[in-house]
Design brief:
This protein has 590 residues and is mainly beta. Helix content is 4%, strand content 43%. It is built from three helices and 36 strands. A six-stranded antiparallel β-sheet has the order 2-1-4-10-6-7. A six-stranded mixed β-sheet has the order 3-12-11-5-9-8. The two termini are 24 Å apart.
Length: 590
Amino acid sequence: MRKTNRALAATAGALLLSGLLPFQSALADDTEPYKLWTFCTNGWGGSLFDPKEKPVTVPGGEDAGSGCWISFGSPDSGKTWIGSDLQLTLAAESVAASGYSPQQLARMLLVRTNNEATEWAKDWAMRRWTVAPDGALTLTVPACTTNCTGVFLQMSGAPRKQGVVLKAELKATSPGYDSTPLPMSFDYFGREGTEPVSFGTPGTFVPVTPTRLLDTRSGAGAPAAKVGAGQSVNVRIAGRAGVPSEGVTAVVLNVTATNPTAGSYVTAHPHGAARPTASNLNFTAGQTIPNQVTVPVGADGTVDLYNFAGTVDLIADISGYYLAGDSGQRFTAVSPKRLLDTRSPWITPGTPTRPFGPVGAGGTITLDVAGSYPGAKAVTLNVTATNPTAGSYVTAYPHGSARPTASNLNFTAGQTIPNQVTVPVGADGKVELYNFAGTVDLIADISGYYSATGSKFVPTGPTRVLDTRNAPGAPLGERKELDIQPNSWKFGIPPFGVTGVTMNVTATGGTAASYLSAAPSSGCDRYHGMYPEYSNLNFTAGQTIANAVTGQLPPLNYCGQRTWADAVTIYNHAGTVDVIADVSGYFLQD
């Protein structure tokens, strides 16, 4: 788990409680303005110092470490504390000397704060810089007005090659406080050979009714020909299916492989960019299998789908896209929750128009989303088909709309298979699931929804954050779990302010039929010998299979064992299995 500066927190709490740390405001009488008092520490467990005397160090590429405690106390008995808004400003001349534009530096230098004077503080809040006309950067920390003695301020800097000392000042801005600036400086240093982080453009989501953009069998979107070994097919995104011709940062596609002549995999990536080593879709000869893919769009408005071996037909259906700016919907990640299970009368009771039980051929089942998540315009579900009596497919679409020709989930008789689905919600707040042939039980677990509030999406392209074949070098055991922390500079993702990630999770080399479940970590043993009711990925012994996973990253918290948690937990139910996870983007507070 990521470290917070517990030495600073513990020292502040102990000194405050013992009365050995005098508030400067307590030295004044009631007629004088309240003043600020602060001390800082550099690194993990460093000694305390006055930031007027030396810089606070910010090591480039370190997720967390240096921080400051800022007190803003009342000069009375000390039983009730009040707070002022705080304003931290980086001088324009320092920003100009950093080698980055103010907008770039604002994304590289992160600040979070917390209003508790205890060792195990929680409820950290991300603070955003604003750019002044002269290029200075300013952030504001709102006042805490109830039972607070001060504020922790912690910083993290993205990797950089060259160092810079940033001159700053801190001041109180509320009435009744001394507004004299407190001078500070931050030594933001880098390391030779460090590669800087490339930040994607934050965007909001625009859902669309599933529409087919590519089918190499019929020649839709590309010539009617299979994709050969080591070959790619180019898919135009911009200007089709209601997608604008510019401003699109990423696209959500359901990619299906069918009629493959050999075991292979498909990788989706922006056209014009180097092809990553990660895969999005794995299959064996003769198999038909889909997977949802979130992929950045190239500068020319297209993406490439690469096939590794043999020949294969590829199908791609769009369900939405991300657009730079604020005109679309924002994402709210939730802990996975089962909304539908046709096997269970407690989760999915029957109705007069649709009796309890599996969905029949040509039948549909309606899922009420807005009833549980008011304001939702689209929803991300993990839909699983199980106990099918025939080869078939499932299509998810907004209730009240015409059913599209696109499919979301393909399966054979007797197969259990999941696929992540992002689908618009109908005007009545509902989603429809249609089954083509035979009968099948359907399960749907929600992982998040899109509405007017929430986080923006930042595409990264596939970045490997886990491969148990390499580290820890052992498969995940039966009823065991592991935590992955994708929000780290080492993966090009900010460690602060990230609320969730989109991942492609692959299971390979399993010794038994099993499933994987992904959920926000609690920092403790999540399941305590129990197992979750939901799954993200089902597999048989020896199978290699992938599925998209949208994982919530919880805020830092204390779970009762002095462990901080802002990670995703992956659980394996049976046997042992190697797990691979590739992040394609993250959701960011703003």
